[in-house]
Amino acid sequence: MDDNKLGVSARKSVLEELGHKCVTASNGVDALELFAGRTFDLVVTDYKMPRMDGLELIKGIRRQTPEVPVILISGFVDSLGLSEENTGADVVIMKSANEVSHLVRAVARLLRKKAGKKPVGSEAAARVKRKMV
Q1: Which among 48, 49, 58, 75 counts the fewest CB atoms within 10 Å?
Q2: Per-residue confidence at 6, pLDDT binned at 50, 70, 90?
Q3: What pLDDT does residue 125 have?
């Protein structure tokens, strides 16, 4: 098993232990195909992958479902200057000894934030519209 597959497996195990259901893909093209046919609450991607890098994957995801939260993990954050602003990701995490704790916190925060959003037709949204009129 190469380092990338080992990393994916370790991240998946940690997230599943916390109660999250995880689906993995071996490359960006397969991930985008999976994404097209299903609904996901959150996407975690690496920058360096076969067939399509993480930035291309994020662009494809944003075209299909712009609101889905995306976490980008990379060992190249500093050297390539990767940030939330220039990648399209909601969170960018540097591969390091603290990566897993950063990932766990980011997943929890993004899912809480997503759950807190009210649908456009909600009562709260309707109250805001009435006040504006």
Answers
A1: 48
A2: low
A3: 42
